[in-house]
Amino acid sequence: MTPRLTIFGSGNWALTLADIAARSGTEVTMYVRRQELCDILKRTHSHPQYLTHLKLPPNVVFTHDLGEAAAYSHNWLMVVPSQHMRTLAIRLRPFVTDAHHVVSAAKGLEEHTALRMTQVLHDCWPEVNAQLGALSGPNLAYEISLGQPAASVIAGSAALFDAMAPLLGHANLRLYGQPDIVGVELGGALKNVLAIAVGIANASGLGANAEAAIMTRGLHEMGRLAVELGAKWSTLAGLSGLGDVVATASSPKSRNRWLGQELAKGRPLNEIIASTSMVVEGVPTAYVAKRLGDEFRLPLPITSEVVEIFNGKPVRQAVQDLMSRERVQESDF
Ligand SMILES: NC(=O)c1ccc[n+]([C@@H]2O[C@H](COP(=O)([O-])OP(=O)(O)OC[C@H]3O[C@@H](n4cnc5c(N)ncnc54)[C@H](O)[C@@H]3O)[C@@H](O)[C@H]2O)c1
Ligand SMILES: O=P(O)(O)OC[C@H](O)CO
């Protein structure tokens, strides 16, 4: 029987994953939230705004009917922004069963609860024993949609990996298994905050040394919070940690890095967010990480300064405050 996959979402990452899966021989159904967009996708197999070079193969079909999408397969990929995951999961409650494999590809934390995405899913489906997991790694959709090679991690049980990896395992996406869901989800979410910080440094002309310092000390900061929340430090040194920090913070295609650059130009946060239809996950995640850092009394100096800059603190002052912090040992957590 031909393998099947349901993808919920129709943004940049959902389109790219649909393309990879379809080219791997998987039959894909994509749930598209907006009827108008769904009609366009059915007609053209191309998104009118995102990744317009991409023409999805005929084995990707589109539906605006959530029940139809849910019934299509037991393999679900959740590719919506983090702040919308709960709404989607609640609507999927009548359809999810113990036999489902559900992988979140979103990289963020829920703002009002501070929950990771698999925790949100579990929260919405407390009685269901579906296999839940997360896909995360240095995966700029644009590059992968061009056929450039990338690697990523599917975190969760071995059974989940065995079920989901073959559906996506195309020649240009190499997938690794990983049992540490907490580390993979936190790595994918927290790196967005660092990408904003590097974007700020970049557009402020602070230089390569400063950008490298933010990435390295920022990774330490991510690890400090993630380990407190149950992750393994070694996971943060992997693809969904170090790997994604490097890719996102260095790429001109990153929305998080772009937002940092726009902040450095003096534009207010609300105006920047309103000027794009795309999701910038690092914004809500920075607020959540700061709150968690305060709650656990963990120093997260870079994250804290990013939040201060959101609130209007001048970049020059933020740099001065970071540089004049009390001296510590490099390895100190
Ligand atoms: N773009 C990338 O390169 C990339 C790579 C890896 C991971 N991600 C992650 O994937 C997630 C989605 O990002 P993206 O880049 O695909 O988004 P995007 O910025 O391209 O667009 C978001 C899309 O989600 C849709 N959406 C919003 N709420 C929805 C809902 N309730 N149900 C269905 N669809 C809904 C919107 O209509 C929009 O099309 C984010 O968490 C992001 O961090 C993105
Ligand atoms: O464009 P960004 O900043 O949302 O980053 C996209 C991916 O998460 C990179 O791995």
TrEMBL record:
Residues 5-156 form the Glycerol-3-phosphate dehydrogenase NAD-dependent N-terminal domain. Pfam families: NAD_Gly3P_dh_C (PF07479), NAD_Gly3P_dh_N (PF01210). NAD(+) binds at A141, R255. GO terms for molecular function: glycerol-3-phosphate dehydrogenase (NAD+) activity; glycerol-3-phosphate dehydrogenase (NADP+) activity; NAD binding. Substrate binds at K107, R255, N256. Sn-glycerol 3-phosphate binds at K107, G137, K191, D244, S254, R255, N256. The active site is at K191. NADPH binds at W13, R33, R34, Y50, K107, A141, R255, V279, E281. Pathway: Membrane lipid metabolism; glycerophospholipid metabolism. Its EC number is 1.1.1.94. Catalyzes the reduction of the glycolytic intermediate dihydroxyacetone phosphate (DHAP) to sn-glycerol 3-phosphate (G3P), the key precursor for phospholipid synthesis. This is Glycerol-3-phosphate dehydrogenase [NAD(P)+]. The gene is gpsA.
